[in-house]
Design a protein that fits this description.
This protein has 351 residues and is α/β, with parallel strands linked by helices. Helices cover 44% and strands 18% of the residues. The chain has two domains: 189 residues, Rossmann fold (3-Layer(aba) Sandwich), CATH 3.40.50; 137 residues, Rossmann fold.
Length: 351
């Protein structure tokens, strides 16, 4: 999927001079790093960039994910740092990753971290936005000061970021609800462990859930509350759900991420019920812990918000390296995994 494009000559006015890089990578942040470096390369090759034989200066790239304890973002950090090390060795140019992710989701803190990155000399910022309204101004200020900004996972669409890498969250929400309907026989009562509803991707995910559940008149959502995207939060909220007047009616749980679902599994077991059978559980992300829970029969399904590279992103990088237009929206494919696939897929999980 592509929206409007940014040309390499436009990149030149933002990025300055840099490296020529097109290498295979595995995690999305690693890929975003290559995309930024390739954008710098395209700027170097454009007619607006002055010719030079000088050795490229070092690159400092800030990574600002939503929350530092989230397993997906920890994998992203590992991938970004590995890419920086490899690219530094390959091209004899220092590439430094500034990990500026808050401990917990906080859009205002993210905005402050963007300003910090600019003040500390970052040439690029990669950010997953906890609250688009709170970070858009900071993104625009960074771009105005010559810093390249790319969003991933959760966008700030009204900002001046040069590209966004992320799944179609409306589609993801609908996929989860359709899978849950299949598991439930299209009837039952659902409890939702939600995330930060200021995050654009999660609002769209909820839209997808609402669109899908409208197709199933015998399914209904009876509880919904934020579990703060943490395992402890998911456990605490699930405990409260089970103790509520509606607790005995709950036949399924939808976790907006795997970590909250894994916390819910703990609470369900402590309540004397069997997760995966007495209460069906589906979630989103596709982390290794979710596959382990499926192998144990305690999680029924996870929908992967794929942090691994897909062909659309390779195509985008190749276009940048060739000085062609850059897609502003890059959408990887998503996968649906259930218990029947978990054991075979588990050894291949990279995060």
């Amino acid at each position: 999927m592509m929206e409007s494009v940014t040309t390499s000559s436009q990149c030149a006015s933002v990025f300055g001079r840099g490296l020529s890089v097109l290498r295979t990578s595995y995690l999305v942040l690693r890929t975003c790093l290559i995309l930024v470096l390739s954008s710098l390369a395209a700027a170097c090759g454009s007619s607006e960039a002055p010719a030079t034989t000088a050795k490229p200066v070092g690159l400092k790239i800030a990574v600002i994910a939503k929350a530092s304890a989230n397993p997906v973002f920890l994998s992203a950090r590992t991938g970004a740092e590995a890419a920086a090390k490899e690219l530094s060795a390959q091209h004899n140019v220092p590439v430094e990753i500034m990990w500026l992710t808050p401990a917990q989701e906080d859009g205002q803190v993210q905005a402050q971290r963007i300003a910090q990155a600019v003040n500390e000399g970052a040439q690029a910022v990669l950010i997953s936005c906890s609250d688009a309204g709170k970070v858009t101004g900071a993104i625009n200020d960074a771009v105005a000061r010559g810093v390249a900004v790319m969003t991933f996972d959760s966008d700030a669409p009204d900002s001046r970021r040069f590209a966004f890498y992320g799944v179609d969250d409306v589609k993801t929400g609908a996929m989860v609800m359709d899978e849950l309907a299949k598991q439930m026989g299209e009837k039952g009562s659902i409890a939702i462990l939600a995330g930060n509803q200021n995050a654009p991707n999660l609002r769209k995910r909820v839209d997808g859930v609402k669109q899908a559940i409208a197709k199933y008149p015998n399914m209904k959502i009876i509880k919904s509350q934020s579990g703060d995207f943490t395992r402890a939060g998911g456990k605490e909220v699930m405990q409260a759900f089970l103790k509520s007047p509606e607790g005995s009616q709950i036949t399924a749980v939808f976790g907006h991420n795997d970590d909250m679902a894994l916390g819910a599994i703990q609470s369900i077991k402590e309540a004397g019920k069997q997760p995966g059978k007495d209460i069906l559980i589906v979630s989103i992300d596709g982390v290794r812990g979710a596959f382990e829970a499926m192998v144990a029969g305690e999680l029924n399904c996870t929908v992967e918000c794929n942090p691994l590279l897909g062909p659309p992103l390779f195509d985008a990088v190749e276009k940048i390296a060739a000085g062609q237009p850059v897609p502003k929206r890059i959408t990887p494919e998503e996968g649906v995994f259930d218990q029947s696939q978990a054991a075979a897929a588990l050894p291949t999980r990279k995060y």
